[in-house]
Design goal:
Radius of gyration: 32 Å
Shape: elongated
Strand content: 25-35%
Number of strands: 26
EC number: 2.7.13.3
CATH topology of the largest domain: Rossmann fold
Structural class: alpha+beta
CATH superfamily of the largest domain: Response regulator
InterPro entries: CheY-like_superfamily, HATPase_C_sf, HATPase_dom, His_kinase_dom, HisK_dim/P_dom, HisK_dim/P_sf, PAC, PAS
Protein name: histidine kinase
CATH class of the largest domain: Alpha Beta
Enzyme class: transferase
Mean pLDDT: 77
Number of helices: 20
Distance between the termini: 60 Å
Strand order of the largest sheet: 2-3-1-4-5-6
Low-confidence stretches: 1-16, 455-466, 524-549, 587-591
GO molecular function: phosphorelay sensor kinase activity
Amino acid sequence: MMNFYLHNMSDTYAAANSMHVLQVDDRPLLDETVEFPDSRGPDSLTLTTTDRADSALDRLEGTAIDGIVAADNLPDRSGREFAEIVRERDSNVPVLLLTEPESVASDAISNGVTDVFRRDTAVARRDLLANRIRLLVEHHRSTELASRTRQQLTELAEQSSELLWVFSGDWTEIQFVNSAYETLYGRSVESLQTSPDEFMTAIHPTDQDRVIQSMQRVSAGESVELEFQITRPDGEQRWVRAKAQPIVEDGTVARIVGASRDITERKRCESEHIAEIDRPDAPVDAVPDLFYELDENGELARWNDALAAATGYTDADLGPMSLTALFAPSDRETVRQGIETAFSTGETSFEADLLTADGTTVPYEFTGGRITAADGSPLGVVGIGRDISARESRQQALEQQNKRLGEFASVVSHDLRNPLDVARGQLELAQIEHDSDHLDAVKRAHGRIGQLIDDLLTLAQNGETALDSEPVPLQTVVEQCWQTVETGDTTLELQTSTVVRADPSRLRQLFGNLIRNSVEHGQTPHTERQDDAGEQRATTSLSQSQRPAADLTLTVGELDDGFYVADDGVGIPAGERDTVFEGGYSLASGPGFGLRIVDEIVDTHGWSITVTESDAGGARFEITGVEFETA
């Protein structure tokens, strides 16, 4: 699948040097070929021109078209009617409509048009028209590539029965996880995607320090493999074996890829096995695995014939030998720590290479449990060792799979942004040559595309259960967020001094998104919705999007059981308030995930959120069910 993906990607970029555009216009403005000599992207546009809508529709049947530019007034039907028919046949192909000065752009967009361009501007600056078409096609290509990449990555990971995941190098972002997480941890994939540190809450307290230390080692560039216990939401405890591998770029750990699997059944069998063979009368020589019993000093006190057979030593040789002498020098510290863990926590699990009498090494996995006297004092450790040589091939396969996942993520991160970088470069050249509000709008559109790519590769950062809850002053959090959001001329009114119990980082993200929502959307009069492919429908002029609202007042105040964020902007229509927290809802040209993230943060803390009209007629978000911190 990986080779198939890379092959298709190569084909895509080989074809990206030229674009085939259908021009539907009885007064065509562009020649059959338009060159871009200084472009870092496609070299040219190849145009096929027809003066009638019906003939254009016929051409679409058997011709691969990258984009369409159509006049608003055609001899046989309007350009908007033509766009509607095109959209019924192809929901993605970009359609640029040449409008007359008196036309209303938003009406055209609602009819399935991707973008509009005034004819009088195009007549004077045909180069701008050509560039606009090129940018639309590049946006379309990057969106399709993002969609294919997401699907292929999911298909690749879902073929594995193991839990596969990709974290950022510092463990603060989960970049990918397959559905096996739900089976193993009993929590939803969405909860981990939105709160990357959620998995730590499931780890048994006795194992948390060891897991954290292992995570730090991976962030420092070391591969690790370890076993630990987790507790599912239903109270069931399970054992997990996880392996993590760092992906290093430019000397820095950029990502961490790994796999986890459920070993609960194996642990149960081992415990029963140990309990059985620990009986004084147990026939330990019949046990196929290595059996060992250590005294209170951590030295061999009893063993079975399998240990002698595996090492090549006789019982007489084993009697006086130090335990660590049976292991490769590089693993002796691991063995010592493993035995110390058994004495301190009651159980242990570690891997080490057994050193045989002839000097060869064999990889073994050891588990053990503490033996205690009636008064609770430790008497020693008993356990078994299992030859894991046969597992090496499976581990190598997993390592190769992890490597492919890492390479895949690297390719995605690099190549998804290539078309966007090309478009941004061309925009810089255009802005040097021409000062236009249209170019500013294109720049904002580029920002939106970048956000869409980021939302594909690194998901939101919240979850189902509140983490690290502590007293947090609302006034302090709001003031911190106010400094990090571009607020323009917006005025902040703080009408609260309350302290709530919450996760500080999640609460900052909640206020940051609500402030940004009010500032960016407070004066935006029309609603924009996005479908799954990122296409826009019913949008405002790009010149209005992502611009800080002027003369807007935002108020943060208290409720009896929570707080609210309100503004005096245009508000949210009553018919749309039930859908504002869905992914893809936006009142400007952003990706539309801001309020969805807010909703997930609220759920994380067990709160509730509603949206209504503020006293000034704007939007008011009320968060209730909040626990206040009392003095």
